[in-house]
Design brief:
By secondary structure, this protein is α/β, with parallel strands linked by helices. The longest helix has 20 residues. This is ParA family protein.
Length: about 250
């Protein structure tokens, strides 16, 4: 019997917290390293940054013979073709997700949704409550933290008050872009607030490092963020990505 496909979103109502980058990196790590069948629904209108990255990756690979050889070698070793990235408006996101599941010859383990930065987008609330889990990246910025907490409180209260069965099982925050040189005062205060309010927070923190910005380029073969390659093993050290993916995989039972 096929296992039900999981719907996951790395989402936040504030920009600049890394949700699209982490969605791409996590999808590539799971698909090419952990051999999980994944797909991405990019409904982050109007940026559609992940869909645009796929097109940029294609252009870069087509212009770089070394990357073409690397991609062919990866396919020979892993037999992993590129995962699907679908460009969608929120109203169509769930329909496209089901079409991916129905049309795939293999069971799709996980579909990641890149959501818009506002709940005011048409159809976005329906998408939010049809996720299995939402993971919210937060950074040490008071405005981001206030916005993130408001978003989580609103979703949680709506879920508690709803008389209808909702697919959403949990919404969990995690620290991103953590700079060890910063004061721990804001982190400590927010962690205590989360604990007091009974909201969940991942143990894994992601550091503030330029590694997460290393994309495919004509003059760069070592990458961390790509839709065709997993993060380079040389760059995984001190990135906490492996711990991040492992912790999430245990939570969602992937």
């Amino acid at each position: 019997m096929n296992k039900e496909t999981l719907y996951i979103a790395i989402s936040n109502q504030k920009g600049g917290v890394g949700k699209s980058a982490l969605t791409t990196i996590m999808a590539s790590y799971l698909h090419y390293n952990n051999m999980k069948n994944v797909a991405i629904i990019d409904c982050d209108y109007p940026q559609h940054s992940i869909f645009r990255m796929r097109n940029s990756d294609i252009e870069t690979i087509n212009s770089n013979p070394e990357l073409q050889v690397a991609l062919e070698r990866q396919l020979e070793v892993t037999n992993r073709k590129a995962y699907k990235i679908i460009n969608a408006i929120p109203d169509k996101a769930l329909t496209y997700a089901q079409e991916i599941i129905d049309s795939s010859a293999e069971n799709i383990d996980l579909i990641l949704f890149d959501l818009p930065g506002t709940v005011d987008s048409s159809g976005i609330l329906n998408v939010i409550f049809n996720m299995d889990y939402i993971f919210v990246p937060i950074i040490a910025d008071k405005r981001v933290l206030q916005s993130s907490l408001t978003f989580i409180m609103s979703v949680t209260e709506y879920k508690r008050a709803s008389t209808l069965p909702l697919r959403l099982k949990d919404i969990i925050m995690f620290w991103n872009k953590v700079d060890k040189r910063e004061s721990t005062e804001l982190y400590d205060f927010f962690n205590k607030l989360m604990l007091a309010e009974n909201y969940r927070l991942l143990k894994t923190q992601l550091p503030d490092t330029k590694k997460y910005n290393k994309e495919l380029a004509l003059d760069r073969n070592i990458v961390f963020r790509s839709t065709f390659f997993p993060p380079d093993k040389k760059l995984l050290k001190y990135s906490n990505l492996e711990e991040f993916v492992s912790e999430i995989s245990k939570i969602i039972n992937l």
